[in-house]
Amino acid sequence: MKRLGLCLAFTLTIFTLLALAVSISMASQEQAKEAVQTATKTEGELSQKAKKTIGPVDSSTVIPKGPQWLGAPIMPDGTKIKEEPGRLITEYNLPYDKVLTWYKEALQKYPDARYRDWEEEMYIEDQGVSKWHSIAIHKTGGPKTQVVIKKDNWSWIMATLFIRFTGVFVVLLVLWVALNIAIFIMRKSIKEKKTKPAPA
Amino acid sequence: MSWREILDLLIGTFQTTGLGFMTWKVIVMWCIGLFFLYLAIVKEFEPNLLVPIGFGIFLVNFPNTPLFGFTEEGHPQLLQFFYKYGIIWELLPCLIFLGLGALTDFGPLIANPKMLLIGAGAQLGVFVTFTGMILLGFSIKEAASVGIIGGADGPTTIYLTARLAPHLLSANTLAAYSYMSMVPLIQPPVMRLLTTKEERLIRMKPTLRHVSQTEKIFFPLICGGIVALLVPAVMPLMGMFMFGNLIRESGVVPRLSKTIGGPMMDVVTVLLGVSIGASMQAEVFLTPKPLTVFGLGLLDFMVCTAGGIFTVKIMNLFIKEKINPIIGISGVSAIPMSPRVAQVWGQKYDKKNYLLMHAMGACLGGSIGSPAAAGMLLAMFN
Known about the structure:
The complex is a heterodimer. By secondary structure, chain A is α+β, with helices and mostly antiparallel strands. Chain A has 5 helices and 8 strands. The longest helix of chain A is centred in the last third of the chain and has 42 residues, at 154-195. Chain A is elongated. By secondary structure, chain B is an all-alpha fold. Chain B has one domain (82-379). In chain B, helix 3 packs parallel to helix 16 and helix 10 (154-164) runs parallel beside helix 20. The chains are: A alpha+beta, B mainly alpha.
């Protein structure tokens, strides 16, 4: 095994030395090579690499230009009702549908926005790396609509942590109870079968 | 033929080789690949997986190799083909679970079902890391995919990451399998830190009750049914796991059981390993995010180990027949490494203490707990 380790180390050293030598000698031609490399890459290869390196994006980089709050789009022509470090409330003289359409269009290119259609509001949650947590568009039914934008907050993170960890326990607890019941029934039926006298 | 033509030909030939495209990143990736081969071949850490992963890393990091890109016609090249259909389409992790099901004897868990709770407690690290990742500026989806590493369940990690954060797939998978292989190094210090000598001396029954074949046949049906009802998002994994187990325990299809647990599992393992290794190209892997993942994965694994130990301690407050907290380390689903470590350490303190079968039960609980945790995380985004 020691010999094998030595062999691996030797191979590694040879490759490293070879690579270093070639890298140094080729440094001057780097630009030309880069051009050749790009030319030989197919479109598929490039798009695949792009796909692999792309991670989540901040919404501020993909929403249309205009006013923003922590990277969340703000529909123009609204009245600011309240602004706190953790949330911004704006009111619009427009019905709910029109405000929602505007926000849907604004967030069209943001892949991490999740829509939840609740009874009293449309709740748009950020699942990406943006600094805002949610945009709630209230369904007033009238000509005015209120929009509440909330900042990322720890209460959500801690709550989801607690609920989901408890959820794992609940799943396995249910399984435990079900197993106990099933085992009890099976063992009893097996015992009964064993004790049952054979017919004469 | 003129000199210029000859020179042009030589330059053209040279440019088709990889020599002109060497970078320091490529060399670092060779070192990583060779390190994994060293771990697998010399140290014998998870060789079935680390040999294909290590070689995949080594192979794909040679410039100009037509292995992980696309042809001029847009068709995937060999390893890209395995990666696309096996990993991105989530085929290989599910097939691995099918094979695992055919190889797993749930007897120790059925004989002592309370061990399921240790498997649940050991998922603590998954959720703690999830929080830590968000604190470090990762997105919720990335945090969820990294958190699952602590469950020490490779296929589940691949399954969840492919869905939530495919750009972290190679880092997450490598971290999961590396830490799984390093169980004997990572878990004992955590166990020693969190337990007293008296606790480590708690003696447990050397054997478990006999589990009938009927119980074993019903187990995949009950477990599969409950998981399908409560966390349906992970049924591609759990369904295959339980299906494989039913094939094994039914006893009527021994040929299928043998094939699924043997040759099929071997083929799938090779394809999975080499695809994961191949996805670790220098320009993707040598960036801050994958390296952070690798660092936090270790912490995750340690917290999961601690979670299992704490669960045993809490359980001991309520039960008559106390459980040795060393068993808690087996709550992560690193089968059979973790139960083996529990057995070895248990016997270091008391030579007549046989913890193996109890630890196997906890570990099997973990193998259900970690897909359940994955399901809980997936539920956030469905």
